[in-house]
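Case study.
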Amino acid sequence: MVSTQKGQVRVITGNAAAAYGAMLCRPDVATSYPITPMSEVAEQLSTFRAEGLVDTEMVEVEGENSAMNVVAAATLAGGRAFTATSSWGLVFMYDAVQHASGFRAPVVMAIANRETPGILAVSGGQQDIISTRDTGWIQIIVEDCQEILDSVIMAFRLAEDYDIQLPVMVNYDGFYLSYMAMPVEVPEREDVDRFLAPLKQQPERTKLVPGKPLGCGTHGIEVGFVELRYKHCMAMQRALEKVDEIDRSFGEFFGRSYGGQIEEYRTDDADIILVTSGGATGTARVVVDAKREQGIKVGLVKLRLFRPFPRQRLSEVLKGRKAIGVIDRSVGFGWNCGPMFMEIRALTPEIGIIPMLSYIDGLANLDITILHIERVVDEVYAASQGKPYQEVTWIPLEE
Amino acid sequence: MVEKTKKSRVFDYFQEKEEVYAGGVAWCAGCPLELTLRFVPKVLGKDIVIVGCPCCSAPVLYGQNLGTWHRLSYYSTLMTGVASSATGLARYYKKIGQDATIVCYTGDGCAADVGFQPLSGAAERNEKIIYICYDNEGYMNTGVQRSSTTPIHAATTTTPIGKESRGKPTVPKNLPVIMAMHESAYVATATLSHLEDFAKKLLKAKEKKNEGFVYLHVFCPCPVGWRIASDSSIQVCRMAVRTNYFPLWEAEYGKFRLTHETPNPRPVQELTGLIGKFAHLKEDQIEDLQRMVDERYALIKKLCEDNK
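After joint prediction, the assembly is written out as follows.
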């Protein structure tokens, strides 16, 4: 066993963790435009720059749309680029978000998740992840401040991998993780350099060089368009295994790993499984432990990767269980169920017909409490025993 | 780096044997957009990156699938992302110490309307890029709809002539002046009828982009959309200058200077008479246009005087 690299422990917020993660990767260009609750990422990066800790070109853009265009272009010219946003900011860069993925621009973007337009909600929720689900980005959802920092570093190694070359979003709960200070081990920059070094051994990405007769972008016509779409889809599929591989490598290097696509907790002998994502997972672990003591064989799966969807690994862990409960922090319009629930439901041919229960909770900064999750476990357990159940429950409306 | 050449007259630029465009490009006959886009690399040199967006220049600049009509390096983006993408390229090349001339090339719909925010942002940040707007006074590529630079009373497909409509009801956005008010490194107007003036401004643009943001506003008649003869576009350019409809000036850090004086300007009717989109104008509407031309020219004169 190789001894792992130690860093310095600092008590920092989730936003600061995202900024530290980016800074450690020495981006060539970074942009951001302030929005609650991620503005601190921009401030922190600007502070690093002001203190000379990085030589990143910081662009203080006039809007999020420009933030995304700046970083996409910088990566396609051959650089490393980082930005951060949230909610309406993500929505405002929607065209550029799709431009970046369609052009295979390996941008890394941190997102402090927040409710999206419709009703003004300056509060947490994962609807912004859902609104960009089909944009062709890799989407990672993390649980705590340490995982934010580590995942930003891993995201660069994933995005810029020669076989992937796709933009990556690192999602964390706005207001909860964005503002919560936790002890975070900040790796040494040289160690991060070494962790990212394998990228340098790969073939060089195609890049735009002034004066060279090379274009970036084209009118995709007929089969030409289909071919690019197909290649994009295949890169997404390759990312599944790559996420696991990079996570393992990170674990060997820094002594921390997160399960890659999904993280399992006490699933080995579990009859029922609870599926969560993001910060609520920590609460769910506590509940799982308590319910285990009561004799309920419940296990927990944290969905870390939302796009590409960890179909195979989820099927493997969910197969043979008696019932599943999925907690979503967003809504699925037109389905009246949680979007993550809907996707897990699509695994039915692989895992068999069993009770699946959708729970919508934690919208607009409402807490997903221990009591809420206890209730979920109890209801999923009852369903596993053949009791009648309600398929979709909006927990805050039933309290 | 400004080209250190003996080229002194504009015709010298056309002696360059190597042509970066293929024959038979997909632009309309007589379109000054094409002539402008052919002229720009002749003066600026070929080590440029052209940043474009969906517009009349896109079919040729973008190519289709793996095919292309030119040998320039270019970056295609959306109308909302031209100045910002150029910023990303320029900043990265700066970071790695690569000499680069980033040239944005868009129509007025991008520059004055949907892409205005990033354009204004890049100008305010004084990004080291050159932004060329070819102003054909409307959305010509999508079928001649009005933009915010469409002149008052002009007919377009969205400001048609009918019982309740006599063309565009409002005056055009004075984009070159707005850009000059950003007080960035260099802003100028140019058009193909005054090629010597245009070439000088391009050379100056290449020099000034080392200091900061450069904006060139190029008057660019659209033979199809304006309903003019395809062999008359340069004539229309010349008349736009002679009537003071499109005065030629430059501004360094907001300091204005006329680069071409018209001692006895012609009435605007001599310009509108050449253009089909003004064919319906009545006398009072021509007076409106004349008033606008006079007021805007007086503004430029005043700005130049204030600079003395």
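Observations recorded in class. Chain B has a mean pLDDT of 93. Residues 10-307 of chain B form a domain with the Rossmann fold fold (CATH 3.40.50.970). We will return to this complex in the next lecture.
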